[in-house]
Specification:
Layout (H helix, E strand, L loop, with lengths): L4 H27 L16 H25 L2 H21 L8 H18 L3 H19 L5 H21 L2 H13 L4 E6 L2 H13 L9 E6 H18 L1 H21 L8 H5 L1
Antiparallel strand pairs: 1-2
Helix pairs in contact: 1-5, 1-9, 1-10, 2-6, 3-4, 3-5, 5-9, 6-9, 9-10
Amino acid sequence: MKHSAKIVAILLGMFFITQLIGIWVIYSYQNNNFNLPYGMEPPKGIAPETSLVSIVIAIAFAVLVMLIFMRFNIDLLLKLWFLFVIIIALGITINSTMLNVQNSSIIALTIAVPLAILKVFKRGILVHNITELMIYPGIAAIFVPILNLWTISLLFIIISLYDIYAVWHSGFMQKMAKYQIRKLKMFSGFFIPYLGAKERAQLARIKRSDAKEKKIKVSVAILGGGDVVFPIIFAGVILRYFGFIPSLIMALGATIALFVLFLFSKKGKFYPAMPFIS
């Protein structure tokens, strides 16, 4: 395996928990007939086929913007973009827990804003990963109402093909991940730094020798946000058409597929997760 069993278990646990939160958030809005806050409720009467085209265009535009920002090192603007998206997504998720409370969307926003600021401008592994658990359910809740089984299936195929190209051919995914981690000091996805056995032994030797300055390579286990949010969207569509239990089976199946990928992955290599999850 590319990472230790402990790290893989943590990643899989966070992935599955996020899927469950996502299903619950989508169910909360759907079952209670509440509109999404902050103007995120999609307009009525849009054909799912039209929505699919719009989503693909939006993803392509987001990738283009990311490339431009990376090319010209527009770090602050990119952070502000992330901040806005994170606030809205967190707000939608938090709001789902108090739909019957007066001014719930405003209350949710007062919680979401400081969390988003901490996440974007203050490095902290705990805050980063806890907020990740809530961001993707909020994003998924926006897209589920405008998709059906056919369009989400086509979207999965398109995203999987893009993932293969971006990881194994162009290397864009690796470049984007490194840019976010090194330049922006953040990452859109689960992020777990850890020391391997060799690094821990090296650290112990340094402590015994009282060396003042010695660099130790820290390994990083990551799982991109797209690999988390798209399965939630699919599970949400399954929830709409078939109910709660089938959506849970979908989430469990995606988690098992991710486990198989981790099981056969090798150190030093990068893998597109979406084809395996699909």
